[in-house]
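Hi, here's the filled form for the chain we discussed.

Project: internal
Contact: R.S.
Residues: 394
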Amino acid sequence: MKILLTGATGYIGKRLLPVLIKQEHEVICCVRDKNRFPAEGIYKHPKVSVLEVDFLNDISTSNSIKDIDAAYYLIHSMSSNVKDFGSLEETSANNFIKLVKQTSVKQIIYLGGITNEEKLSKHLASRKRVEEILLESGIPLTSIKAGIIVGSGSASFEIIRDLVEKLPMMITPKWLNTKHQPIAIRNILEYLTGVLLKPETFNRSFDVGGPDVLSYKKMLLQLAEVRGLKRFIFTVPVMTPRLSSYWLYFVTSTSYMLAINLVNSMKVEVIAKDNDLEKMLGIKPISYKEAVQLAFQKIEQNNVLSSWKDSLVSSYSDNSLLEHINIPTNGCFIDKREKEITTNVDQVLDNVWSIGGERGWYYGDWLWHLRGFLISGVCSPQIKRIKDYFYMQK
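And the returned structure, exactly as it came back:
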């Protein structure tokens, strides 16, 4: 069947495309700029074609895609300014409808957010409004609504990972006690492809989630367990949304705009309502811990297909932005410098291991003492492994 895939260069789109090709579908990828569309791997497949279209601008008529069977709507503006992303999302959804109404499309599949609470964040309210616009089109709509998606490279996962790997002890805002129902990226892809042209899913909305309902605090602690780390987390009621956003921005690899929108959404409880979709499609939900383990397998194999920065970069006109956004390899940024030592190796190593203690540090002695107090008993196994490694290099 022939499928229109919007958001093809975003986090979900990059994961979904190989699955659709494996299922032998023909896929038309919608992108804002053809020059940014990758020219290697799955993107060179004979069943993959590209349509350049900017849904934030008026859509002209097109005769090239009249025989579409289904269309995925995976566009969002969460990385945009908190004041205007709602209007941007409405414009994008309306222009998308204008485009697909020119085709013979039989189904729209939309990935949105769980919106069961009365008081929603601006982001979640916008997601709900987009669903309404798509439904009003008269084209059969299947809405898949999810909360936190756990997978290598996803914004929420990378933030949780950054916090756990960088901070042995955390003083955190009270929204870390908010309950959510995270879902593995593998399950999301199963749902998105499983509903394809299934009439029993037309004009229906399905909440999807994993088997675990957890607070953010428990998600942090369970990820620490998977990584073999001991972490201490204390929540306080004094951190405002703005302070929380700065906290995420300075400690993690997220952008500031994304941090603001995430914080506003993180204060809302996101728990899926029961439905029959899981049973209908025969999907086995993956637990949070297993999803984390699967994500780290991909990271360790250097096989991360997409990340949150893909969606961020595709929203800007400046191509150079991509060069300045990087997901940390091991949860931290590294400034690495090397100098080969050919003589007196033992003396150099003795000097290295003498830093601190009675000798002290080269700068900010009291700061190093404070750091030592914070990580005492937490990171000693890692420090021992580092020392053993250096002695093995002699």
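Let me know if anything looks off before we file it.
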